[in-house]
Every structure is written in structure tokens, then in C-alpha cells.
Amino acid sequence: KLYFVSTVAVSKWGPRSYLQFMGFINQVIGIFDFDFIEFNRILLVKFAGEDSLWSFAEMQCVREYFGLIFARLVEGRLKDKPFSGLQVWAALMNFTSDTFQDMLLSEGRQKALETARPQRLDLLQTLMASQLEKASLEERLSV
């Protein structure tokens, strides 16, 4: 019933015509999943590097990253709660680009990174120490 769009001038549309046309536009916009697009952009910034193009290795990193996040959720916060399976399912169904962005930029994450930074530096300095250059990985890790 949108034939009027091509046959009637816009200046002659009535309220019903405008309403039908706006309903059609709303349906067309609904085709696009904007949350998926936003989520993809956040993942591109975090994982895809300067070229902003997905490689297979980068996609594998994303898979492993989310595996670790949700494993921590299941084994940590929700492990001993009643109906933990239902709560995990609800968390997965409500995990959106906004949730992910909040998680990446939260103050708790910043504090955790600041706390872990000196430990990471010590570990890297130990692993890369000049006396260990020729040592095998197992020997480096035993130090």
C-alpha cells in the first residue's frame, strides 16, 4: 500500500500517508543490527590492530578472550549461586556492546591493571634477563 510514494507528490500526502511511510522506514531501519555493528567496532579497536581488518589469528584471540571472560564468570562469581546456569544464560543474553565497553573502561579494571603492571614487568624482566637468553623456556620459567 505504499504505491502513493511513487505516484503522489509529497506536498499532497495526508497524515495517513506520512504514518504509513514512517512505518515503512522504521521497518527498513530494523533490518540493521546496530548493536552488532557497535560490538564489532569495539572488537576491531581492541584486537584488529592498525589495519582494522580481521585476520584469522585475531578472530581466534577474540574467541579465546570471551572464553576466558565467561569461564571466569561461571567459575567465579556465579559458581555457588542458586540457579547459576540460568544466571549465566541471562548474562550471556544481555551482554551487549554497552556492557563490553563498560567492562573495558571500568575503574575496577583500571585498578586491576595498575596492580598487575609491576608484577608483569618483573616477570618479563626475569624472562628476558641476559643470563637467560640461551636458556630454554622451561629453564626460564623455573627461575
Quick synopsis:
The chain has 143 residues and is an all-alpha fold. It contains eight helices and no strands.
Shape call: elongated
The amount of beta strand, in percent, is under 5%
Biggest β-sheet: count, sense, barrel? none
| Topology order in helix (H) and strand (E) letters | HHHHHHHH
Helix segment count?
A: 8
User: What is the arithmetic mean of pLDDT?
Assistant: 83
- What portion of residues is helical? 55-70%
Radius of gyration: 26 Å
Distance between the termini: 77 Å
Q: Which consecutive residue ranges, at least 5 long each, have pLDDT under 50?
A: none
Structure class: mainly alpha
What's the count of strands? 0
Task: Tell me about this structure.
With 143 residues, the protein is mainly α. 70% of the residues lie in helices and 0% in strands. It has helices spanning 4-7, 15-29, 34-47, 56-77, 84-93, 97-105, 107-127, 137-141. The mean pLDDT is 83.
SSE map:
Elements: H1 4-7, H2 15-29, H3 34-47, H4 56-77, H5 84-93, H6 97-105, H7 107-127, H8 137-141
Labels describing this entry:
143 residues, 8 helices, mainly alpha
